[in-house]
Specification:
The chain is of the alpha+beta class and 444 residues long. It contains 13 helices and 7 strands.
């Protein structure tokens, strides 16, 4: 949610003097004045739909009528969010759509989704409680604005009315401002320059005060809009978890495809070649023992290579040293195998949760691979440390820079994987370097 329109830092006196004619004051006044007729329309719609739906509940028609009323309240809520965004600079996220709650297609599924949605009922509550506050805001803002400018311009009325309207002046009474005949005793006409000056100064103070009173009024409107018309924190969290679940599923599927590809193209192909070589050696064992011995030696070399590939694959999935000794020693082994010299600094006195430890290791592995492939850096530094609630991992190099998370890139996939566990990936890599990438993970 965005805050109110930013007011530039100026001297306080200049800010107060310019407030009545500033753009932000005009937008907020327009918001208050336009809000009252819209609140009347919204209240009439919601109260009518609620009452008619309640009366028709004894028949089947009451439920669809109530659903249509809730749909109208949601449409009015969308209008209110747009009005608050345009005039107040208040950015409120869209709530959960109705189609996300539909368990099937069809009008009855739509009706059921509307009635089950807490968002729909919050919109209904907004339209009902908005009218009293809109009325109060409308009266206060309009009264202060009219009284302020009328009193401020009183010298103009004192000159204009006797000259063109055959009246002594704009008269001030208990009913407000009146245009009475000469001699009318029901109102007061300031007489003399001192009284006119006092009236004008009072009008100036009211005029200067009005924008700030209106600003205080619209703060309540902001609370109503953001609290009742925006997405609830629970719904937003559900959406986030659903999105993260999809990311986890996609990541797991991609990892399985990568493992299958590595097995098929690497160790499996070597084992097939090994089996064929041993079969040929078996056939030549009696006919040509020397050639058979050479083929067995070659098969032995192939077996060692296949074994090393299987070890590398297992290490990439979850290395044994990570399970046995923790993240620090595992990262030491990882940086030692990196072709770019890397200085490792670890400050961990305890081990995080095993899942977080595995993600941190995979993150470091991915970042070191990107360092080797793209950075062209002569040296890099990898730091890992703990805050009270987070595990932080940062890699810094003096390479060519320009690392950006593009769609389908490794950095984008890494950021999605971190988001799935409420983590965060921060990339600072201007063209020409240096590059600093920080990964933040929850400790538990």
């Amino acid at each position: 949610m965005a805050s109110a329109p930013t007011i530039q830092r100026r001297p306080l006196a200049l800010l107060l003097l310019r407030a009545p004619v500033s753009r932000w004051a005009a937008r907020e006044m327009l918001y208050v004045l336009s809000g009252f007729p819209l609140a009347v329309i919204a209240f009439t719609w919601s109260f009518g739909a609620l009452g008619l739906g309640a009366l028709l509940l004894i028949t089947f028609l009451g439920i669809p009528v109530l659903a249509v009323g809730l749909a109208g309240c949601r449409a009015l809520g969308q209008l209110e969010r747009g009005r608050a965004r345009a005039l107040l600079g208040l950015k409120v996220g869209e709530p959960e759509p109705v189609r996300a709650l539909q368990r099937s297609r069809g009008p009855m599924a739509w009706v059921g989704a509307l009635l089950r949605s807490g968002v729909s009922w919050r919109h209904l509550v907004y339209t009902l409680i908005r009218l009293p506050w809109a009325l109060v805001s409308f009266i206060v803002a309009l009264a202060l604005w009219c009284w302020g400018w009328a009193l401020l311009l009183y010298p103009l009325w004192q000159w204009l009315f006797p000259r063109y309207m055959d009246r002594p002046a704009l008269q001030i009474g208990r009913e407000g401002f009146t245009i009475a005949s000469p001699g009318y005793k029901g109102a007061w006409v300031p007489d003399g320059p001192v009284e006119v000056l006092v009236v004008s100064v009072g009008g100036l103070l009211l005029t200067l005060l009005t924008p700030w009173v209106v600003r205080g009024l619209v703060q309540v409107d902001k609370l109503l809009v953001s609290g009742l018309l925006g997405p609830s924190s629970l719904a937003a969290r559900v959406w986030e978890l659903e999105s993260d679940r999809g990311v986890v599923v996609d990541t797991a599927a991609a990892d399985l495809r990568r493992i299958e590809r590595d097995l098929h193209d690497g160790a499996q192909a070597r084992l097939v070649s090994l089996a064929m070589g041993l079969g040929l050696a078996k056939e030549k064992l009696h006919e040509d023992p020397h050639t058979a011995a050479q083929m067995v030696d070659h098969a032995h070399d192939e077996a060692k290579i296949a074994l090393q590939e299987l070890r590398d694959l297992a290490r990439g999935i979850h290395p044994a040293i990570l399970t046995d000794r923790g993240l620090g020693p595992a990262l030491s082994t990882l940086t030692a195998r990196c072709t770019t010299p890397v200085t490792l600094n670890t400050d961990l006195t305890q081990r995080p949760a095993p899942a977080i430890e595995g993600i941190a290791y995979c993150t470091a592995s991915e970042l070191l691979q990107n360092l080797t492939k793209h950075s062209q850096a002569p040296h890099a530094t990898l730091d890992i440390w703990r805050t009270p609630h987070h595990l932080l991992l940062q890699i810094h190099d003096q390479g060519k820079g320009g690392a950006t998370p593009r769609p389908g890139s490794g950095l984008t996939g890494l950021a999605d994987r971190l988001n799935a566990v409420d983590g965060l990936l921060i990339i600072n890599s201007p063209p020409g370097g240096p590059t600093t990438i920080t990964a933040q993970l929850p400790w538990r």
